[in-house]
């Protein structure tokens, strides 16, 4: 696959790492206005760094956009005349609708929106996908790319903002939970390195139990909570202090922020 990433910042670098380590490319063009911060990719076979978006587009078939929302429209205008019937356009841009992309490139291009997360760098992203009518013919290609880099789910476009909160911002939310459990483990006697190792592997184990067994979290909780034991004591104290409620409130606030940015700035 001849892939270009337009805007190699935090997410673009994560996607590039995932694509390179899984050997998923025939060629990979990485663009950024200032190439200094992406020199780590220089020297990889078939990987090209350029600040020329037009060159990247004309030499690639699959174009992944990973710039800030305010930059996308200008870039689409810049490259629109170079697009052919073969190009598949994949936008990871938060809050930028298919309709708005089509207003720059037309309805006859394959347009796909993808919402991955930074775990794509290690092949563990869950990526939500949707497409325009034409793009439905190429959604399998997008699924193939993102399934190599984790898992994917095709969803209706109206759920893309929610997917951003749950999956993309979700990485930051889970990091905070891991950090908090690490801090607790230090207070309970482990050194910082051991504490983080215990916290992150416990988190991985919990997620894998659900992924492998397909159970509801409460079924797994029931296996751990000895009556009158320490687990239920801790869980109930966390709930008295609002653990579930604060997570839900935080995610709803995040969702409201995306929707307000959409109407104010795009
Ligand atoms: N960071 C994340 O975890 C996720 C981000 N997103 C979305 O991905 C997009 C990028 O996010 P980040 O990587 O965090 O932002 P970022 O600011 O780290 O990266 C954007 C990059 O685009 C480059 N850029 C700006 N104008 C350009 C141009 N004309 N040509 C080429 N490159 C240009 C910038 O130099 C920068 O490196 C955003 O729209 C965000 O909503 C989506 C899912 C997850
Ligand atoms: O925080 C943000 O607005 C972007 C979207 C999802 C991850 N980063």
UniProtKB/TrEMBL annotation:
Domain of life: Bacteria
Catalytic activity from the UniProt record: L-proline + NAD(+) = (S)-1-pyrroline-5-carboxylate + NADH + 2 H(+); L-proline + NADP(+) = (S)-1-pyrroline-5-carboxylate + NADPH + 2 H(+)
Pyrroline-5-carboxylate reductase catalytic N-terminal domain span: 2-93
Pyrroline-5-carboxylate reductase dimerisation domain location: 157-258
Keyword set, alphabetical order: Amino-acid biosynthesis, Cytoplasm, NADP, Oxidoreductase, Proline biosynthesis
Claim: Amino-acid biosynthesis is one of the keywords in the record: yes
Main location: cytoplasm
Name this protein carries in UniProt: Pyrroline-5-carboxylate reductase
């Amino acid at each position: 696959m001849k892939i270009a990433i337009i805007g190699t910042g935090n997410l673009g670098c994560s996607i590039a790492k995932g694509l390179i380590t899984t050997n998923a490319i025939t060629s990979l063009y990485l663009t950024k206005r200032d190439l200094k911060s992406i020199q780590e990719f220089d020297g990889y076979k078939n990987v090209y760094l350029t600040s020329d978006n037009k060159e990247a587009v004309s030499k690639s078939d699959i174009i992944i956009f990973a710039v800030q929302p305010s930059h996308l429209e200008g870039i689409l205008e810049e490259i629109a005349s170079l697009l052919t019937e073969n190009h598949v356009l994949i936008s990871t841009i938060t809050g930028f609708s298919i309709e708005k992309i089509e207003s720059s490139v037309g309805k006859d291009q394959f347009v796909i929106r993808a919402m991955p997360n930074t775990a794509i760098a290690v092949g563990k992203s869950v990526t939500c996908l949707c497409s325009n009518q034409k793009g439905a013919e190429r959604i399998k290609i997008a699924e193939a790319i993102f399934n190599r880099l984790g898992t994917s789910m095709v969803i209706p476009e109206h759920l893309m903002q929610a997917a951003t909160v749950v999956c993309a911002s979700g990485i930051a939310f889970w990091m905070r939970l891991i950090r908090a459990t690490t801090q607790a483990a230090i207070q309970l006697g482990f050194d910082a390195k051991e504490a983080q190792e215990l916290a992150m592997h416990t988190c991985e184990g919990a997620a894998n139990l659900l992924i492998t067994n397909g159970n509801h979290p409460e079924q797994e909780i029931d296996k751990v909570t000895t009556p009158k034991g320490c687990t239920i004591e801790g869980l109930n104290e966390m709930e008295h202090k609002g653990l579930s409620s604060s997570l839900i409130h935080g995610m709803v606030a995040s969702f409201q922020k995306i929707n307000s940015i959409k109407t104010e700035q795009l």
